[in-house]
Design brief:
With 203 residues, the chain is of the alpha/beta class. The chain folds into two domains: 110 residues, 2-Layer Sandwich (GMP Synthetase, Chain A, domain 3); 69 residues, SH3 type barrels, CATH 2.30.30. 19% of the residues lie in helices and 36% in strands. The strands form two sheets. A six-stranded antiparallel sheet has the order 6-11-7-8-9-10. Strands 1, 2, 3, 4 and 5 form a five-stranded mixed sheet that branches. β8 and β9 form a beta hairpin.
Protein backbone atom coordinates (compact mmCIF):
# COMPACT_ATOMS: atom_id res chain seq x y z
CA UNK A 1 0.00 0.00 0.00
CA UNK A 2 1.38 3.39 -0.96
CA UNK A 3 1.68 5.65 2.01
CA UNK A 4 2.58 9.29 2.28
CA UNK A 5 4.84 10.85 4.87
CA UNK A 6 2.94 13.02 7.28
CA UNK A 7 4.03 16.08 9.19
CA UNK A 8 2.21 17.21 12.29
CA UNK A 9 1.90 20.94 12.41
CA UNK A 10 1.54 21.88 16.04
CA UNK A 11 3.91 21.62 18.96
CA UNK A 12 1.84 18.78 20.36
CA UNK A 13 2.44 16.87 17.14
CA UNK A 14 5.43 14.65 16.72
CA UNK A 15 6.89 14.18 13.27
CA UNK A 16 5.67 10.65 12.72
CA UNK A 17 7.07 10.39 9.17
CA UNK A 18 4.84 7.41 8.78
CA UNK A 19 1.98 6.12 6.84
CA UNK A 20 -0.82 7.42 4.85
CA UNK A 21 -2.02 10.54 6.51
CA UNK A 22 -0.91 14.10 6.54
CA UNK A 23 -2.57 16.27 9.13
CA UNK A 24 -3.81 19.82 8.85
CA UNK A 25 -6.36 21.85 10.68
CA UNK A 26 -7.88 25.20 9.99
CA UNK A 27 -10.73 27.38 11.12
CA UNK A 28 -13.94 27.23 9.19
CA UNK A 29 -16.66 29.76 8.65
CA UNK A 30 -19.96 29.02 10.30
CA UNK A 31 -22.41 27.03 8.24
CA UNK A 32 -24.58 23.92 8.23
CA UNK A 33 -21.66 21.64 8.90
CA UNK A 34 -20.48 23.78 11.81
CA UNK A 35 -23.75 24.27 13.70
CA UNK A 36 -23.47 24.30 17.49
CA UNK A 37 -24.37 21.22 19.48
CA UNK A 38 -24.92 20.88 23.19
CA UNK A 39 -25.47 18.25 25.81
CA UNK A 40 -24.56 14.58 25.87
CA UNK A 41 -26.26 13.95 22.55
CA UNK A 42 -23.95 16.35 20.74
CA UNK A 43 -21.52 13.64 19.70
CA UNK A 44 -24.34 12.01 17.71
CA UNK A 45 -25.06 15.07 15.62
CA UNK A 46 -22.68 14.40 12.75
CA UNK A 47 -24.07 14.37 9.26
CA UNK A 48 -24.81 11.15 7.43
CA UNK A 49 -24.24 10.94 3.71
CA UNK A 50 -25.50 7.87 1.91
CA UNK A 51 -22.78 8.22 -0.73
CA UNK A 52 -19.94 8.08 1.81
CA UNK A 53 -17.47 5.18 1.62
CA UNK A 54 -18.21 2.28 3.94
CA UNK A 55 -15.26 2.99 6.26
CA UNK A 56 -16.68 6.38 7.28
CA UNK A 57 -19.02 4.71 9.79
CA UNK A 58 -16.03 3.37 11.71
CA UNK A 59 -14.18 6.67 11.33
CA UNK A 60 -17.09 8.47 13.00
CA UNK A 61 -17.12 5.99 15.86
CA UNK A 62 -13.41 6.46 16.46
CA UNK A 63 -13.76 10.24 16.19
CA UNK A 64 -16.44 10.18 18.88
CA UNK A 65 -14.24 7.99 21.08
CA UNK A 66 -11.30 10.37 20.75
CA UNK A 67 -13.49 13.46 21.24
CA UNK A 68 -15.10 12.12 24.40
CA UNK A 69 -11.75 11.80 26.15
CA UNK A 70 -10.99 15.45 25.27
CA UNK A 71 -14.40 16.88 26.27
CA UNK A 72 -15.09 17.67 22.61
CA UNK A 73 -17.97 16.83 20.30
CA UNK A 74 -18.04 15.71 16.69
CA UNK A 75 -20.24 17.95 14.57
CA UNK A 76 -19.51 16.52 11.16
CA UNK A 77 -17.24 14.04 9.40
CA UNK A 78 -16.74 14.32 5.65
CA UNK A 79 -14.73 12.46 3.06
CA UNK A 80 -13.84 14.40 -0.09
CA UNK A 81 -11.28 13.37 -2.65
CA UNK A 82 -8.80 11.77 -0.27
CA UNK A 83 -9.36 14.31 2.49
CA UNK A 84 -11.00 13.40 5.79
CA UNK A 85 -12.44 16.55 7.34
CA UNK A 86 -13.65 16.48 10.96
CA UNK A 87 -15.54 19.44 12.42
CA UNK A 88 -15.57 19.66 16.20
CA UNK A 89 -17.33 21.51 18.98
CA UNK A 90 -16.83 21.69 22.73
CA UNK A 91 -18.84 19.65 25.22
CA UNK A 92 -19.27 22.85 27.21
CA UNK A 93 -21.69 24.96 25.17
CA UNK A 94 -20.13 28.13 26.59
CA UNK A 95 -16.73 27.31 25.14
CA UNK A 96 -15.32 26.99 21.66
CA UNK A 97 -12.52 24.66 20.61
CA UNK A 98 -9.11 26.22 20.17
CA UNK A 99 -6.04 25.24 18.20
CA UNK A 100 -4.83 23.03 21.03
CA UNK A 101 -8.12 21.10 20.95
CA UNK A 102 -7.79 20.58 17.21
CA UNK A 103 -4.23 19.35 17.49
CA UNK A 104 -5.09 17.04 20.39
CA UNK A 105 -8.00 15.45 18.54
CA UNK A 106 -5.96 15.18 15.36
CA UNK A 107 -3.22 13.32 17.21
CA UNK A 108 -5.61 11.03 19.08
CA UNK A 109 -7.86 10.23 16.12
CA UNK A 110 -4.91 9.79 13.78
CA UNK A 111 -3.40 7.16 16.06
CA UNK A 112 -6.71 5.28 16.30
CA UNK A 113 -7.13 5.30 12.53
CA UNK A 114 -3.60 4.04 12.02
CA UNK A 115 -3.93 1.31 14.64
CA UNK A 116 -7.01 -0.13 12.92
CA UNK A 117 -5.87 0.76 9.40
CA UNK A 118 -9.41 2.00 8.79
CA UNK A 119 -8.82 3.95 5.58
CA UNK A 120 -7.42 1.76 2.77
CA UNK A 121 -5.68 4.55 0.84
CA UNK A 122 -3.56 7.64 1.37
CA UNK A 123 -5.46 10.54 2.92
CA UNK A 124 -5.19 13.92 4.59
CA UNK A 125 -6.76 14.44 8.00
CA UNK A 126 -8.07 17.93 8.64
CA UNK A 127 -9.63 18.95 11.96
CA UNK A 128 -11.55 22.23 12.00
CA UNK A 129 -13.67 24.28 14.32
CA UNK A 130 -16.07 27.17 13.64
CA UNK A 131 -14.29 30.49 13.55
CA UNK A 132 -10.90 29.11 14.51
CA UNK A 133 -7.95 31.24 13.62
CA UNK A 134 -4.38 31.39 14.77
CA UNK A 135 -1.96 34.26 14.62
CA UNK A 136 1.62 33.26 13.81
CA UNK A 137 4.19 35.40 15.58
CA UNK A 138 7.47 33.61 16.16
CA UNK A 139 10.10 31.98 13.95
CA UNK A 140 9.03 28.67 15.43
CA UNK A 141 5.45 29.34 14.32
CA UNK A 142 6.63 30.11 10.80
CA UNK A 143 8.65 26.90 10.69
CA UNK A 144 5.89 24.70 12.10
CA UNK A 145 3.24 26.05 9.75
CA UNK A 146 5.30 26.13 6.58
CA UNK A 147 3.10 25.03 3.69
CA UNK A 148 -0.13 26.05 5.41
CA UNK A 149 -2.61 28.64 4.08
CA UNK A 150 -2.15 32.09 5.62
CA UNK A 151 -3.31 35.66 5.25
CA UNK A 152 -0.54 38.23 5.67
CA UNK A 153 -1.40 41.88 6.22
CA UNK A 154 1.18 44.65 6.02
CA UNK A 155 1.44 48.05 7.67
CA UNK A 156 1.89 49.72 4.30
CA UNK A 157 1.57 48.77 0.65
CA UNK A 158 4.03 46.22 -0.72
CA UNK A 159 3.95 45.52 -4.44
CA UNK A 160 0.72 47.48 -4.66
CA UNK A 161 -1.28 45.82 -1.90
CA UNK A 162 -1.53 45.36 1.85
CA UNK A 163 -2.89 41.81 2.03
CA UNK A 164 -1.42 38.54 0.71
CA UNK A 165 -3.19 35.17 0.78
CA UNK A 166 -1.34 31.96 -0.05
CA UNK A 167 0.74 29.17 1.42
CA UNK A 168 3.47 30.05 3.87
CA UNK A 169 6.68 29.18 2.02
CA UNK A 170 9.35 30.14 4.51
CA UNK A 171 10.97 32.91 6.47
CA UNK A 172 14.28 34.57 7.21
CA UNK A 173 15.45 37.34 9.51
CA UNK A 174 14.42 39.89 6.91
CA UNK A 175 11.35 38.50 5.15
CA UNK A 176 8.35 36.18 5.09
CA UNK A 177 7.81 34.21 1.88
CA UNK A 178 4.36 33.26 0.67
CA UNK A 179 3.28 31.30 -2.39
CA UNK A 180 0.32 33.16 -3.91
CA UNK A 181 -1.20 30.95 -6.60
CA UNK A 182 2.18 29.69 -7.70
CA UNK A 183 3.89 33.07 -7.52
CA UNK A 184 6.47 33.43 -4.77
CA UNK A 185 6.32 36.73 -2.92
CA UNK A 186 8.86 37.94 -0.38
CA UNK A 187 7.45 40.38 2.19
CA UNK A 188 9.87 42.37 4.37
CA UNK A 189 9.31 41.50 8.02
CA UNK A 190 9.44 45.15 9.00
CA UNK A 191 6.21 45.59 6.97
CA UNK A 192 4.41 42.51 8.26
CA UNK A 193 1.56 43.46 10.54
CA UNK A 194 -0.05 40.05 11.05
CA UNK A 195 0.17 36.48 9.78
CA UNK A 196 -2.95 34.40 10.37
CA UNK A 197 -3.75 30.77 9.53
CA UNK A 198 -6.85 30.43 7.37
CA UNK A 199 -8.92 27.50 6.15
CA UNK A 200 -7.69 25.73 3.04
CA UNK A 201 -10.71 26.62 0.91
CA UNK A 202 -9.86 30.31 1.07
CA UNK A 203 -6.57 29.99 -0.84
Amino acid sequence: MQRNNCRHAFQLFLNYNLVKRSIRFYGCSSGPSCSETTGSSATKSFEVNQSEPIFITRVKELAEEAALDLSLTIQSVRWTGGKLVVYIGHADAERKPNVGDCSALSTSLGKLLDEEDVIPSSYQLEVSSPGLSEVLKTDKDFSVFRGFPVRITTSEEHKGKKEFVGKLAGHSLDAIRVNCNGKMTKIPRMLVKQVVLIESGKV
